[in-house]
Write a structure and sequence with these properties.
This protein is mainly alpha-helical. Helix content is 70%, strand content 4%. It has a two-stranded antiparallel ribbon with strand order 1-2.
Length: 230
């Protein structure tokens, strides 16, 4: 079931990002008919709204983001089936890897985080799944910010960036869950302190795991695929 859901979401990501990116249409009116053609690169350079916050991701980047998010979702689902105390949110690792590799603009990174949050909502076991809609983009923003901060330290930048982004996402999730389902937290854990005692080690362990995953995966593709400053 989740394989098909992930495949469908993969297609949705492709369509959404492509629709917001380089695949743009222009209609030319004739006397009796109208035709539609794609913008050329020259059209895009001369497009009057070129400088506004419009997606400019290339198709290869869009495909890479979609593949990584789909892979993270499938892996996250299988991890949730283990029914262990610690179920790390590895989707964070995969959208951080995507942001590190393609070096998107900030608003593109936020869209990637929102999609990652939606995918996280599909995985069972969360105390408040809707909090992922906030923690996802928060983690993506954290990834964007910390990579800009640490990217000169090339050897450990992916690890430090992903570790920090996971902390941002995890703490945001706890804060949102506390606001909206505080009663459920008290019913399940007895008191808020017990909830914090349980979740803080989970967040830290997930941050370490995600950092290691991204550090390993970014070693070789990072050198080949990372977008250089224009």
């Amino acid at each position: 079931m989740y394989y098909h859901v992930s495949l469908s979401l993969y297609n949705m990501v492709i369509i959404y990002l492509a629709g917001a990116g380089n695949i743009c249409g222009r209609t030319e009116q004739g006397t009796s008919t109208s035709t539609v053609r794609l913008f050329t690169r020259e059209d895009q350079k001369n497009f009057p709204y070129r400088k506004k916050n419009v997606m400019q991701m290339e198709l290869k980047d869009i495909a890479l983001v979609a593949i990584l998010l789909a892979a993270g979702t499938v892996l996250q689902y299988f991890l949730s089936m283990l029914h262990t105390l610690l179920i790390p949110d590895v989707i964070i690792a995969f959208y951080c890897l995507a942001i590190i590799l393609i070096r998107p603009k900030i608003y593109e990174a936020l869209v990637i985080g929102i999609i990652g949050g939606i995918l996280s909502m599909l995985i069972p076991g969360s105390i408040f799944a809707a909090a992922n809609l906030v923690s996802g983009p928060a983690g993506a923003y954290g990834c964007f910010y910390f990579y800009e901060l640490f990217r000169d330290r090339r050897d450990l930048a992916p690890l430090i960036t992903t570790f920090s982004a996971t902390l941002v996402s995890g703490c945001t999730f706890v804060a949102v869950a506390t606001v909206f389902v505080f009663g459920t937290i008290l019913a399940r854990y007895g008191n808020f302190v017990e909830f914090v005692v349980v979740y803080v080690p989970i967040i830290l362990a997930t941050a370490v795991l995600n950092g290691v995953i991204v550090q390993i995966l970014a070693i070789f593709p990072g050198r080949a695929l990372a977008r250089r400053p224009e």
